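REVIEWER CHECKLIST
Item 1: Sequence provided? yes
Item 2: Single chain? yes
Item 3: Sequence as submitted:
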Amino acid sequence: MPSQHITDEDAFKYLAAAAAAEDHQYKLWSEELVKRARFLWSLNGGQTPTLNQIALQVGVERAKAMLPSVFARRQFLNELLGYRSPCHYCGGTQGLVEYEFALMRVKTSQRTWGGVAASVALGAVTLPLAGIASIKLPGQSHEGEALGLKLIVCQACRKSQGNFLGIFMLNEARASKHPLWVQLQSAGFTKFLDSDAMPFELKVLSTTEL
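Item 4: Structure as written out by the authors:
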């Protein structure tokens, strides 16, 4: 297909998928995402193309302009998800555990009556935003943009920060140790959602996006 017939959105996706497929040492893309990228290419009925081949397909100049954003977005997502990160409390590397949560930039909020189950509708996905979320919690309904994050905590910090039973329970104060917390709060992502309130679709997007 001539490069002029490929939209910028598709060109960006093709470049990201090719870069992921070439990340043999999983420096920026996890092993799961590298395998996913190669699988997606295999669905097109051929060998996995090189990044240079995709650059020729989408247009060399366009590829040169887009590639810095491709890698910058991946780095941002890695920071969100704690990929290859040491403990966010102390920098330790022993016994690391991931704790999922989300931050939401609320656009509208309203009170609801009666208990309602958590529900969500995600769409119009654009990164660095993970999606547009409509979240219902008991007594409240929020609409806005949400980001899925992971807090990385080592064995020693789970013990020192745990409750009287020695159990580490994630809450807003503890989640604030995430290295992007201040930056995201400044950008308006101030609504904390623990893993129970965090939309399943948001979790899927945050872990499968190339």
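Item 5: Key structural point noted by reviewer: The CA atoms of residues 104 and 191 lie 5 Å apart.
Item 6: Recommendation: ____
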